[in-house]
Design goal:
Blueprint (H helix, E strand, L loop, with lengths): L1 H16 L3 E4 L2 E4 L5 E4 H9 L9 H10 L10 H12 L8 E7 L15 E9 L2 E2 L1 E5 L4 H16 L10 H9 L5 E5 L1 H8 L1
Parallel strand pairs: 3-4
Antiparallel strand pairs: 1-2, 4-5, 5-6, 5-7, 7-8
């Protein structure tokens, strides 16, 4: 899916502008594949100078978040804290293009568990010019695990998180019929059009 994404964006850029190298806000960005790939926590360490780990004590993650200007909600778990630190310190600094990989499971309710990294999922976001250009992941196809995650999301939503999901019974029913291993990709068409025009 990463290869599809970078090839698609480079092709569209060439069709629209005549080149995979485009100028955005007075700066060039070269969309020629292959794009860099880096983990979310490695990028935070590179840009904010702090190494994050989901196994860190929650109070330490809260302190790091507060030290970097994140307004911390006491209900956030380690995954949400890690994501908020990344978004506050790092995302806007990534001119890219770069695929940010390995997101916390806590903030990725539809993505499959990472095969090697506990607490993480197989998810990536292409970042170009400091903005998320899309979101993609290996789809979670286990209906029982998906129900647990939806129920966790519903609790977070009830506690006030407007971005949290609800329990989607129609989706769960479809998963019970079966979904083969698959990857999903969503591209922010508005952001792609802004980048290219």
């Amino acid at each position: 899916v990463m290869e599809l994404t970078e090839q698609l964006v480079a092709h569209v850029a060439t069709e629209v502008t005549g080149s995979p190298v485009v100028t955005y806000q007075g700066r060039e960005v070269d969309l020629t594949p292959p794009w860099d790939r880096a983990t979310l926590v490695d990028l935070v360490e590179r840009h904010a100078g702090v190494r994050l780990d989901l196994r860190m004590p929650i109070d330490e993650l809260r302190r790091i978040a507060a030290d970097h200007g994140v307004e911390v909600d006491g209900s956030w778990g380690p995954g949400k804290l890690v994501l908020e630190i990344y978004e506050k310190t790092t995302e806007a600094e990534l001119w890219g293009p770069v695929f940010v990989i390995n997101y916390p499971k806590e903030v990725s309710p539809l993505a499959r568990d990472h095969r090697e990294l506990p607490g993480m999922v197989e998810r990536f976001e292409p970042i170009v010019a400091g903005r998320e250009l899309g979101n993609a992941f290996t789809e979670l196809v286990d209906p029982d695990e998906q129900r647990r995650r939806f129920e966790d999301q519903a609790r977070v939503k009830a506690a006030g998180d407007a971005e949290a999901m609800i329990v989607d019974e129609d989706y769960l029913r479809a998963l019970e019929y079966g979904l083969p291993p698959t990857g999903g990709l969503g591209i922010g068409m508005d952001r792609l059009v802004m980048l290219l025009t």
